[in-house]
TrEMBL record:
Keywords: DNA-binding. Transmembrane segments: none annotated. One of its GO terms (molecular function) is DNA binding. Residues 4-45 form the SpoVT-AbrB domain. It comes from the Archaea. This is AbrB/MazE/SpoVT family DNA-binding domain-containing protein.
Amino acid sequence: MSETTLDSRGRLTLPKAIRERHGERYHIVELHDSIKLVPIADDPLSALREEFAGVEQSVDELREHARRDALDEAGR
């Protein structure tokens, strides 16, 4: 785990090892009691293709599965 602080202008510097591993661009996600940095791929479309290369379900099947999971979580 690394530690960093904001400078006088409110900028945050990430350690070099983290930048080399995850890149230079991030989405900042504000959670209830923390924040999360989510790396943005240099080529987001290519990254999505790689992420879902092994998925053999159709979009409709994935959507239906997600809907059922959401209903189960909601207790219906």
